[in-house]
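Changelog entry: the Glucose 1-dehydrogenase record was regenerated in this release. Current contents:
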Amino acid sequence: MFSDMAGKVAVITGASQGIGRGIAVRFGQERMKVVVNYNSSEEMALETVQEVQAAGGEAIAVKGNVGQEEDVITLMKATIEAFGRLDVLVNNAGIQTTTPSHELTLDDWHKVMDVNLTGAFVGCREAIKYMLAHDIKGSILNISSVHQKIPKPYHVHYASSKGGLRLLTETLALEYAPHGIRVNTIAPGAIVTAMNEHILSDPRQNQDVLSLIPMNQIGEPKHIASAAAWLASEEAGYVTGVTLFVDGGMTLYPVYLKG
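Regenerated structure tokens:
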């Protein structure tokens, strides 16, 4: 636990399930006030709210598609209206589809980019604007993927969005470091989430994934949440512009373990 986190206000996009929910609950354990953003399932978002409250924090749910600029602006306004300030933004919302690159339509390209990269930019812009205006030395976390580093065939739009997220993070970190605003990236590997359920529930595909992970285990949302809590805390107060890979060693070229 981090003593400086209690009472701080965090917005987490895509927090109705998976990694977003895991981060929200961990922030609840830190006694934070959490805005749970969701796009489709209010029921699942309210479950996250209840889990945050049960963990010791405060929470509200706010609907919004981060791929739409106005929804992101409304999300930030709702946060200030509910809790009076903003200290931490976690850009977690993300989508992907599977398509051979030569068959990918521009519409499908834009759908992924709008949520994964443009939505994150708008969130960063609005959060930084507020933090500068109120002299808040805040923290922004962009949830990326190992595929900001590892190419992902059939997912060129997804991999491109995550690669862009890395440089978005580094550029903003450099630009706003003089103001005490820290911007970092967490890059998860294979995590037990709904997005990966179709792979992890199939024994053969599950084993294929495990073969890519030196630690020989699939990660859980709590692993990402622990990294997020540290990066958002003053324990990481001298850390900005980094990507923290939480991947069981997936980015360490596991093929070389075979000798």
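The two ends are 40 Å apart (CA to CA).
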